[in-house]
Amino acid sequence: MKTIKLAPCLLLTISLIIILFCVSVILPTFSVRYYLREFEKYRLSETMRISQPDLLHVVKNLQRYMAGLDDSLDAVAVVDGTSRPFFNQREIHHMEDVRLLFHYGFIALGFSAVIFILSAIYIVKNKFYYETARCVMMGVFVFLGGFGGLAAIIALNFDKAFVIFHEMFFNNDLWLLDPRTDLLINMLPQEFFINISKSIAVYFLGGMAAVTAASMFGVIKINRRRYLNKA
Q: How many other β-carbons are positioned within 10 Å of the β-carbon of residue 95?
């Protein structure tokens, strides 16, 4: 495949994979309904001695803060009969780091969307449909091989993977929270992160499967048309 065809096809493939991954993270992370289902599963309202409305208020503040819509984590809730700020200073400082991570993620999503659109326009203008379908299909297969291997390693030892992730993306130990003093770790226990990781994987693999199916359909359709034109 010539560079003039390969470059836009590769750019579209890579940007599409990044978009699918970012959207797969966003869907459960910023779904209030998802959090409430998890809270009900572990009966957090009872174990933390906090009302469901207050828990909902805290979650909305947390999500809006991570999305850059709220300037601060200032949710107040009645916990164990006492009205208090839900987040302490250590949790707030840790969430500042998390918010920055999501900020970079949103930038990557926006940049990838622009690259995807520009690449798609160039491909449509030059009618590189067959080359693009093949490139996307092969790119997805290669990426899924690596993603599958990583997912298997994480599944085998989630605890270690969880620690490695935080050590890679955070340059401090603020993420090491104490369930005796930090409500955030009680609201979002390790089981929550295991479940949300599974949900992200399902969304991502579902999107990749749809893209692969569409690419395969495109390759088969174009090959069939070429065969009929030669006949």
A: 19
